[in-house]
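Record 1 of the preview.
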Amino acid sequence: MWVRVGWIEPPIGLGEWCASHLSLPFCIPQNATEYRVFFSSRDSDQRSHVGWVDVVFNSDHSFKTSFGTSPVVCPGNAGTFDEHGVSGSYFEIADKRLRVWNFGWQRLQGKAWSNAIGLAEISIYDADSTAENTLIIKSNEFEQHGLAYPYIISQTSIRYLFYGAFDLYGIPSLNEPYSFISKRAEIGDDFRLSDRSPMIAHLNGKSAQSRPCIIRDGSGYRAWVSVKGDKYEICSAYSLDLRNWYWSDEGYDLRPNGLNEESQEVCYSHVVDFMDSRLMFYNGDGFGKSGIGIAKWQE
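->
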């Protein structure tokens, strides 16, 4: 089961780029006690930026934090796929470069938004620099309203991209019906997608699946997906082959505890196994407005 460890609150006075929110955390372990957690903040115009905070745990599981003073990925120029914000979702480290897989936001006239997947690279030795963001995958005949929440996992020689896309497009703020589902596709070296399919069927009464996160678990793979009915909760699924998924709680789900920062919902989890620990970094009420929660898995 998941045991809450603590909460990272949004900092005060970090800069205009981080006026609110610590959304969509993803984590890079540094060693047994130190983790660098990336997040998406918002400025006063609600444009998201990608920043980071270092988390150092003590022996009693208390921790201290140290925030980076500048964003590593910023919104793009007017007319670009990420002009109204960019949110990180997954990372890779290759050739001493940090590759931040992200999705950009662009508001469309008469519609809610359009998303597209980008990739930004920076040196792991120069995390205070700002990375150039490059458009990788945009709206197409299969995902006409964009793609979001990229997460990559490999199996033998195949790389799979898990992501989110509308299968029924609507505008939630206008109470239009919509459905947002997690999908899986093979991704080639040229970033072309093939063998697209929904990852898993909706749970009864749920209309959205967001931000899939997947790790090896025993002889198979375990995923955590943010699912939405009236509010978000984090549900778990299991697969032996990355293709056929089944909802599987067994204590792996996370639901709001009804207190303080997660009084109504939890979402946008990132789970990491490192040495003997399995940690979940997640958001509570307001999609990260209340900060980042940390939970530790205990058998």
